[in-house]
Design brief:
- By secondary structure, this protein is of the alpha/beta class.
- It folds into 5 domains: 82 residues; 158 residues, P-loop containing nucleotide triphosphate hydrolases (Rossmann fold, 3-Layer(aba) Sandwich); 93 residues, Elongation Factor Tu (Ef-tu), domain 3 (Beta Barrel); 110 residues; 89 residues.
- Strands 8, 9, 10, 11, 12, 13, 14 and 15 form an 8-stranded antiparallel sheet that branches.
- The radius of gyration is 33 Å and the shape is elongated.
- It starts with a helix and ends with a strand.
Length: 554
C-alpha cells in the first residue's frame, strides 16, 4: 500500500474513533497535526493501534480512560481477534547506537534516516510481531516514555564502541523507576568495532544504575536476529506470566478519611484481600500499612463482591476509580512482607537487614507471641488491646532468629500451639523461660490473670488497676456506660471508675468490701480481694447475665 494512502487511512481511523468517544473537532485537528508516523505494514491498522498512538504522544486530555475505550472497541468487534496474540517490541537506545540497523536486519526493511538519526516512530510487522523503532535523541524523551508504558517488551541497544552515554543512562533510570527490567533485553551492538568489554558495561549497569536481573545478548549480529530475539523475549514473557498467575484485578471506588488517615475503599473482582496482600500500581508495589474493614478481613455484599479499606498514606498517589493488580503469591508475600504492619501495636519483622531489631525493642518491656493462625492473632489482640501495657510495649509474632537473639532473660516469651520453629525455640530456651499453651482460653486467662511481668514497667500514682470485661459468650464489652462513676456503700465512696489517657478503665482508691452498688446505672457489683488481686462480678438487671472480669493491682 502507498505510504501516503496508508497514512490517510490512519488519520481516518483516528478521526472515526475520536468522534465515537465524543472528541471535539478542534482536538481532532490538533491530534492529526501532531501525528507524524511512518508505518510499514501490509495489513490495515487496528483500532488498538490508534489507542497506543494516543498514548505515545502524551495526549492525556483526549483519552481519559484507556480501559473504557478498549472495552468499547472490543464490544463492537472492531478489534482483530488475532491481534491479542501479537507482541509489541520497542527498540530503544541512545542515538547512533544501532537501533535502526538492528531493525533492518530483523525485518529485512531498508531504512534510511537523515543524518543517521531516527526522526519519527516507525512501526513494522513481521511474523505477528510489532517492532517499534523509537527516536534516540533527547528531544523525543516524552515519546520514548510513553512507548515504554504500552509495549510488551523493551530491547535496549548499547554500543560497545561508545559505551553508556547520556540518553542510555536516562533510559536505564526510567526502566528502573518503572520496574521494567523483567521485560527488558539489552542488546550490545557494534561488536566488530568495540572499545568496551561486555562484562565491564554489565557491571557498570548493575552497580551504578541499580539495574539488576536484566537479560542481555553478547553476540554480534546474526542472520536471523529476529528469531533469536523473539526466542529470548518469549522466555521472558513466560517467566513474567508465571509471576502474574496469582494476580487479579481490582478497582478503587472511593476515598475516605478515618480518624485523620486517608483510606481507599477497594473492590476486588476475584478472590479476597488480606494482610499479606501486595498491590501493584503501574509496576510499583504499594506498601500496605494497615487494612481496615469494620474489624473483619473483608466485606462481602449480597452479590458476593469483596471490598476492603486500605491505608495508602505511604504508597504512591491513587486516584478514585483507579485499577490495580492484587497479588497473593507466596513469593510476593515473602519479598514484600517487611513492608507490612499488622496493627498499631503488633509488628511483624521479616528478614530485613535495614531494621535494627535492637533499636526496635529497646526501652520496652518485650512480650513475644508466636502465633501463625490469623484468627488466634485477632483474639489475642482484641483481648489485650485495652491494656495500658500495650501502649508501652511491642508484641511480635512469627519471630525469626534475628529477633530471637534480642530476647533477654527478663522478657516474657509465650508460645501458642507449638508454632515456634525448633531452632528458635532451643535458642530462646537457653535465654529465658518459655510458656507454651495448647488452648486459646488458657492463654487468655494467663495473660489476664497471672502475667504480672508485662505490668512491671507501668507507673501510675496510688492504687491503680486495669480492667478487662467480657461476656460469658466471649463478646468483649468496651466503653460500657454503667462503669462510669463511683462505687458507693452507705454514702461512702469505695472506688472511682474513670478512663485514663489511653482510653482504658481505671479504678482508683479502691477499698475491699463485699456488695456495693453503682448509683449510675441499675447494676450491682461484688468485690472480693485475694492477695494482690481484686475480682468482681457485675450483674446487669436488664438481661440478668453475669459479666466476669478481673482487676490487676500494682
Amino acid at each position: 500500500m502507498n505510504k501516503k494512502l496508508f497514512t490517510i487511512q490512519i488519520l481516518n481511523t483516528i478521526s472515526t474513533i475520536s468522534q465515537e468517544i465524543g472528541l471535539e473537532m478542534n482536538k481532532i485537528n490538533q491530534l492529526i497535526k501532531y501525528l507524524k508516523i511512518n508505518i510499514i505494514d501490509k495489513d490495515k491498522i487496528y483500532y488498538l493501534d490508534t489507542i497506543k498512538i494516543f498514548q505515545y504522544y502524551k495526549i492525556n486530555y483526549i483519552v481519559s480512560d484507556i480501559c473504557t475505550i478498549k472495552q468499547q472497541i472490543e464490544n463492537r468487534s472492531l478489534l482483530n481477534n488475532n491481534y491479542n496474540k501479537k507482541l509489541s517490541i520497542g527498540i530503544i537506545g541512545h542515538v547512533n547506537h544501532g537501533k535502526t540497523t538492528m531493525i533492518s536486519e530483523m525485518t529485512g526493511a531498508k531504512i534510511l534516516e537523515a543524518h543517521d538519526i531516527t526522526q519519527n516512530i516507525s512501526i513494522y510487522e513481521k511474523e505477528n510481531i510489532y517492532i517499534i523503532d523509537t527516536p534516540g535523541h533527547e528531544i523525543f524523551n516524552h515519546i520514548r516514555e510513553h512507548i515504554l508504558s504500552v509495549i510488551d517488551f523493551i530491547v535496549l541497544t548499547i554500543s560497545l564502541h561508545d559505551g553508556i552515554e547520556f540518553e542510555t543512562e536516562k533510559i536505564l533510570n526510567l526502566i528502573h523507576k518503572r520496574n521494567l527490567h523483567n521485560k527488558t533485553l539489552v542488546v550490545f551492538t557494534k561488536y566488530d568495532i568495540k572499545k568496551y568489554e561486555v562484562k565491564d558495561i554489565v557491571k557498570q549497569i548493575e552497580c551504578e544504575y541499580n539495574f539488576k536481573g536484566f537479560s542481555y545478548i553478547t553476540k554480534s549480529f546474526q542472520e536471523n536476529k529476529l528469531k533469536e530475539i523473539i526466542n529470548i523475549v518469549t522466555e521472558i514473557q513466560q517467566l513474567y506470566e508465571e509471576k502474574d498467575l496469582h494476580k487479579h484485578d481490582g478497582i478503587i471506588i472511593n476515598k475516605e478519611n478515618i480518624n485523620g488517615t486517608e483510606y481507599c475503599l477497594i473492590k476486588l473482582n476475584k478472590n479476597s484481600i488480606n494482610k499479606k496482600t501486595t498491590l501493584l500500581f503501574d509496576n510499583k508495589i504499594a506498601k500496605i500499612n494497615k487494612i481496615l474493614s469494620l474489624n473483619k478481613k473483608q466485606i462481602t455484599n449480597i452479590e458476593g463482591q469483596v471490598f476492603c479499606y486500605v491505608n495508602l498514606s505511604i504508597s504512591i498517589p491513587i486516584q478514585q476509580n483507579s485499577t490495580f493488580l492484587c497479588s497473593s503469591c507466596d513469593k510476593e508475600i515473602d519479598k514484600y512482607n517487611k513492608y507490612i504492619t499488622y496493627t498499631n501495636y503488633i509488628v511483624n519483622i521479616n528478614e530485613n537487614k535495614n531494621i535494627d531489631t535492637n533499636k526496635v525493642v529497646e526501652n520496652y518491656n518485650k512480650v513475644f507471641f508466636f502465633v501463625k493462625d490469623e484468627i488466634t492473632q485477632e483474639i489475642i489482640y482484641n483481648t489485650l488491646k485495652n491494656y495500658t501495657i500495650f501502649n508501652r510495649s511491642k508484641v511480635f509474632y512469627n519471630i525469626n532468629m534475628s529477633l530471637a537473639m534480642c530476647v533477654s532473660k527478663n522478657d516474657e516469651v509465650i508460645v501458642f500451639n507449638k508454632t515456634l520453629d525448633t531452632n528458635i525455640y532451643n535458642t530462646l530456651k537457653k535465654i529465658t523461660t518459655i510458656t507454651v499453651f495448647d488452648k486459646i482460653y488458657d492463654l487468655i486467662d494467663y495473660l489476664e490473670i497471672n502475667n504480672k511481668k508485662i505490668l512491671d514497667n507501668i507507673k501510675i500514682k496510688n492504687l491503680a488497676v486495669i480492667i478487662k470485661i467480657f461476656e460469658i459468650k466471649g463478646t468483649y464489652i468496651y466503653g460500657c456506660n454503667i462503669l462510669r462513676g463511683q462505687f458507693e456503700m452507705n454514702s461512702k465512696v469505695l472506688a472511682t471508675v474513670q478512663k485514663d489517657e489511653f482510653d482504658n478503665f481505671v479504678i482508683q482508691n479502691a477499698i475491699t468490701t463485699s456488695i456495693v452498688s453503682i448509683k449510675k446505672g441499675k447494676s450491682f457489683v461484688k468485690i472480693t480481694k485475694k492477695n494482690d488481686q481484686i475480682g468482681f462480678i457485675f450483674y446487669n438487671l436488664a438481661n440478668k447475665l453475669p459479666l466476669n472480669g478481673y482487676i490487676f493491682t500494682m
